[in-house]
Amino acid sequence: MKIEINRSSHVPLAQQIYQSFTDRILSGYFPSGTRLPSVRQLAKTLQVSPVTVMQALDLLEKQQLIERIQGKGIFVAVKNNVETEEPEEEREDGSLFLQIPDYLHRTQQMYYNQVLAQINFSSPIVHPDLLPTEILAQSISQLVQKEPEILAQYGEIQGDIELRQALAHYLMNEGIKVSPQDILVTNGSQQGIDLVARCFLGPGDIVFTEEPTYTAAIDIFRSRGATVIAVPVDQEGMRIDKLTALLDTYTPKLIYTMPTFQNPTGYVMNQKRRRELIDLTRHINCLILEDDPWSEIFFDQSPPLHLKAMDRYGNVIYLKGLSKILSPGCRIGFMVASDMILNRLIAAKTNADMGNPLLNQKVILPIFQSQWIRRLLKELRESLKQKRNLTLQLLKEYAPPGMSWLTPKGGFNIWITLPKGANTIELLSMCKQKNISFLPGSACFPSDIEWNHLRLSFSNVDEEEITLGIKEMCMVIGKYLSSLDRQKGQTPLF
Asked: Which residues are in the HTH gntR-type domain (predicted)?
């Protein structure tokens, strides 16, 4: 396991160590009863003082995540308060876990956050009632009856040509002029990020990302050995002035950005910054990966042009996921890139899976060949705007003092901030007792982690669940913040 410590962070080292172990214990990476390294081993491996390690362990013990057994060592607490059994021989050397690279703790945390939550504010997907499931079911039935051989066929590695033609026409209406030969069909947007990382990143390469950003992207880039450098964002998107300043120290090989309704914040990069970003990368020989999860879901006015629509130099890779607006079960998306870049991505796709299932591609084809996609998106915008408005109304009515947020102009999420000192992972444990889940914002920070944010996704819940969930969540937050206030004036943790 690799524990990352940011020594320049304002977050105390003991708190960082505590949080790293908490993530791994709650995700199940460290099972109940696992023996952990000794204080001396941890201090040596992490290059911190034994006092710092002791402070972190005290916090873990306070949260009942570990147990210290006299003469035996430190163990992950057994669930349900069952008496700890004698640790097995193979678990004796807990330092082994510190030697195994681990790049997926954010993904593990996201999985854990969704377990057993009836009111799911953690998943930014469309509620099943709003998806075109009947149309897709009819399409599957007709396809199998008419062309049963489709079940026994591989598709083209680059993607079905008819679908790529339909997507090229769709993109024309989005301001992106491409041919079917410029498109690669993928198994969702996450595979697209992985293909870019496989092709263009290696150990020591620099990637600039927004901070906060999409959690899986952080794990994917680091799994390739790349160094992720965070660029702050504000309500106008990625701070180009901060990015420019970072160029004095770093030479990025890739800039990963979600300029439209950014995940998790919902911010939109303005037109001026988009142009500045493209012009800037021309001079540093750097690729831009533009991730577009839901630019069509705008609630007032259309967002600015895509970066790819403004790309004059051929260094922008456009990535679009379709699963969130059509069917999460389809797992389909696509990428647009210039010739040489696309050829390398196709080669990586060949190694990954030899192409998407042909059935999935043919099933969604009629939606893009007709005007039905426009009607679907219009209905989605109207329905999700109602959900957003209801969520904001309830937050305004029930949120306790100190809780703040901005109104998203599109997308599926609301980014909520609590006072400094709050930890939304602790809050999540309390909310789960009310069967409510959300994504703690700490998972979205690649470096200087901030613990007092959460991402609330309103897209996957109905209005009754929104009403009950927001009321209950705000009540829990109010109690949590009150408990923090009572702790003020007491001996600080660090």
From this structure: 11-79
What Cα–Cα distance (Å) separates residue 311 from each residue in 105, 185, 322, 369, 423?
35, 20, 22, 26, 41
Residue 14 near residue 57, CB atoms below 8 Å: no
Type and span of the H or E element at 238: strand 237-238
Instruction: Give the residue extent of every domain in the chain.
Output: 13-102, 111-124+375-487, 133-371
* Torsion, CA 306, CA 312, CA 316, CA 319, rounded to 10: 40
Helix crossing, 161-172 with 358-369: angle to 10°?
40
What is the chain's length? 494
Q: Is 15 helix (H, G, I), strand (E, B) or coil?
A: helix
Contacts of 461 (CB under 8 A, 6+ apart): 119, 120, 121, 127, 387, 469
Q: May I ask the CATH architecture of the domain 133-371?
A: 3-Layer(aba) Sandwich (3.40)
C-alpha to C-alpha distance for 256 and 243, rounded to whole angstroms: 12
Quick count: other Cβ atoms within 10 Å of Cβ 215? 23
The DSSP line for 30-63 is S-TTPEEPPHHHHHHHHT--HHHHHHHHHHHHHT
Q: Encode pLDDT of 178-226 as tens digits.
A: 999 999 999 999 999 999 999 999 998 999 999 999 999 999 999 899 9
Cβ-Cβ contacts under 8 Å for 124 (sequence gap 6 or more): 263, 293, 324, 411, 412, 413, 455, 457, 459, 460
Selection from 57-66, 129-138, 409-418 with the highest mean pLDDT: 409-418
User: Domain 111-124+375-487: which topology?
Assistant: Aspartate Aminotransferase, domain 1 (3.90.1150)
For the chain, what is the largest distance between any 2 Cα atoms, rounded to a whole number of angstroms? 74
Under DSSP, the state recorded for 490 is: S
Q: What is the spatial distance between Cα 300 and Cα 75, in angstroms, rounded to a whole number?
A: 53
